[in-house]
């Protein structure tokens, strides 16, 4: 266990966006005198800080990354750092800090504005370190505290009335001065993580997500954090305030989650389509990769400084040598990684035996799955669907609309994007992927968890629902028939991938999740979705010859 005596001075950081670039600055560096402050709160050396750009010459303040890596694969048995040790380095955060601008009480809701933040009361005599932090907060509105060593043991914290989370919140949100006044509420929704609503008497509200057991094996938590920072910077997501090792603190977005039946509502699906097209058009996945790389490098630097002494290392490396982490940078690599860790499962074996003319058992299961995926990947890559930053999990529960929104009047004309009321949440699975996969994946979610596939819109130019959906995605009610038909054909080619993707995912979840849900049966149902698509695809390919 890490103690205060051996805690690194740069064990936490501020991460923020400037000039479409992610920066990670160790918090203790901000209290040094390396960057003089003038009486305006700005850096005297304009090559270091300016209102529009941030250049960091000091190599100790910013780190470059060689390549991205898959999530935090540390085992769940890692000892947690005491909370008082972890947050000690952020106690100099000025009271002029951030809080969500959308309180939980509906009668106090203020309009959702860009960045969702408002200034709080200031401490009377700000120090030089406070002014440095103010300069960042004023100039770079999207920012969050990164605490890579802090682990919240939720089961223990529940027994002590959320004592650790209360302490953490008062450090991250200094306007929350009395931890005893914070109200917690468990929220429903989601089948992998626990979500808590945290409310202060002022009406301010934030959400805390504590990651589900084992989910770091299949979800890239670095990417999730950077994605929300970037999404917030372009007004596509609520603010994020802090990331600790096994969770996030982020802004409350007023409204309600949709139900599966809502996805096919004529008053909603054109707006969902328009917003998804907006995401695909405005999110630069290369910017995201750059930010993920910087965060990984900061974490890697921190870990390298906490390695045991050389004599101890020499005595343990031969027995405890760690396998190098696999790097995940797109949807194909993620599925390959899932196949590598998918357990031998009766439902999985049954699915492949029932749909292939080969005998599948424990001895050849992985080989058969890999061969099937390689065939599928080849088909889909050849379709040349453009690569975009894809949500990859746009089910009904991840789509938010305002409370009381009229769901009875069909959308006739698309609104201006700035007036689109639809918001997307939960960015755990976002990766670069073909746009047709993200679209097909969303349309597949029209079936809900009951897997009523009759609810999925048929991908055909003669289907007026899908034609209207595609026009919404293109943000053009007057899109030509040929443009719409080409996109529908592109989407149709990807109609099998969601079933394969979530089928493998669910089989993994059946082994690692504590949630009371029949993942194994659900996985077999989703895989059948893939097999049925394959039969149809091969039949059409044969007709075309």
Key descriptive features of the protein:
single chain, 545 residues, alpha+beta, Aminoglycoside 3'-phosphotransferase, Chain: A, domain 2, three-stranded antiparallel sheet, 13 strands, disordered N terminus
How would you describe this protein?
The protein is α+β, with helices and mostly antiparallel strands and 545 residues long. The chain folds into two domains: 13-254, no CATH class; 332-544, Aminoglycoside 3'-phosphotransferase, Chain: A, domain 2, CATH 3.90.1200.10. The chain is built from 16 helices and 13 strands. The strands form three sheets. The chain has an eight-stranded mixed beta sheet, sandwiched between helices. A three-stranded antiparallel beta sheet has the order 9-11-12, with no helix packed on it. The longest helix is centred in the last third of the chain and has 26 residues, at 519-544. It starts with 12 loop residues before the first strand and ends with a helix. The model is unreliable at 1-9, 30-103, 105-140 and 309-319 (pLDDT under 50).
């Amino acid at each position: 266990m890490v103690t205060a005596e051996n805690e690194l001075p740069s064990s936490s950081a501020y991460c923020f966006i400037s000039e479409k670039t992610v920066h990670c600055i160790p918090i203790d560096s901000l209290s040094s005198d390396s960057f003089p402050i003038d009486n305006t709160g700005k850096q005297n050396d304009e090559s270091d800080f300016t209102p529009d750009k941030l250049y960091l010459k000091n190599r100790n303040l910013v780190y470059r990354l060689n390549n991205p890596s898959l999530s935090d694969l540390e085992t769940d048995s890692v000892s947690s750092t005491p909370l008082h040790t972890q947050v000690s380095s952020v106690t100099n955060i000025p009271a002029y800090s951030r809080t969500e601008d959308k309180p939980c009480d509906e009668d106090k809701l203020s309009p959702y504005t860009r960045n969702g933040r408002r200034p709080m009361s200031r401490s009377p005599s700000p120090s030089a370190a406070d002014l440095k932090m103010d300069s960042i907060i004023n100039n770079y509105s999207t920012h969050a505290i990164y605490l890579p060593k802090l682990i919240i043991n939720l089961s223990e914290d529940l027994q002590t009335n959320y004592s650790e989370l209360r302490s953490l919140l008062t450090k991250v949100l200094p306007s929350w001065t009395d931890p005893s006044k914070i109200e917690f509420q468990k929220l429903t929704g989601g089948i992998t993580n626990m979500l808590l609503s945290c409310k202060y008497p002022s009406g301010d509200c934030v959400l805390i997500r504590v990651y589900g057991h084992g989910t770091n094996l299949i979800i890239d938590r670095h990417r999730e954090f950077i994605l929300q920072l970037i999404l917030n910077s372009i007004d596509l997501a609520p603010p994020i305030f802090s990331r600790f090792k096994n969770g996030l603190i982020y802004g409350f977005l007023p409204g309600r989650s949709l139900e599966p039946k809502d996805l096919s509502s004529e008053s909603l699906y054109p707006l969902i389509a328009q917003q998804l097209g907006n995401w695909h058009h405005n999110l630069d996945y290369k910017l995201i990769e750059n930010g993920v790389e910087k965060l990984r490098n900061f974490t890697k630097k921190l870990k390298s400084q906490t390695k045991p002494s050389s004599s101890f290392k020499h005595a343990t490396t031969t027995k405890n040598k760690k396998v190098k982490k696999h790097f995940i940078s797109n949807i194909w690599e993620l599925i390959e990684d899932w196949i590598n860790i998918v357990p031998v499962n009766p439902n999985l074996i049954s699915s492949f035996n029932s749909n292939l003319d080969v005998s599948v058992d424990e001895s050849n299961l992985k080989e058969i799955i890999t061969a099937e995926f390689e065939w599928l990947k080849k088909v889909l890559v050849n379709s040349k669907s453009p690569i975009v930053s894809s949500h990859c999990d746009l089910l009904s529960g991840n789509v938010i609309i305002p409370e009381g929104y009229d769901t009875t009047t069909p959308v006739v004309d698309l609104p201006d994007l700035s007036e689109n009321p639809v918001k997307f949440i939960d960015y755990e699975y976002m990766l670069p992927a073909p746009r047709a996969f993200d679209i097909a994946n969303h349309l597949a979610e029209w079936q809900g968890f009951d897997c009523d596939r009759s609810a999925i819109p048929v991908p055909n130019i003669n289907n007026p629902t899908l034609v209207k959906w595609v026009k919404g995605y293109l943000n053009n009610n007057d899109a030509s028939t040929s443009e719409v038909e080409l996109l529908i054909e592109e989407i149709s080619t990807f109609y099998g991938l969601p079933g394969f993707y979530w089928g493998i995912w669910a089989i993994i979840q059946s082994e690692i999740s504590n949630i009371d849900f029949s993942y194994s049966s659900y996985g077999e149902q989703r895989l059948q979705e893939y097999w049925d698509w394959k039969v149809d695809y091969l039949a059409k390919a044969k007709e075309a010859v």
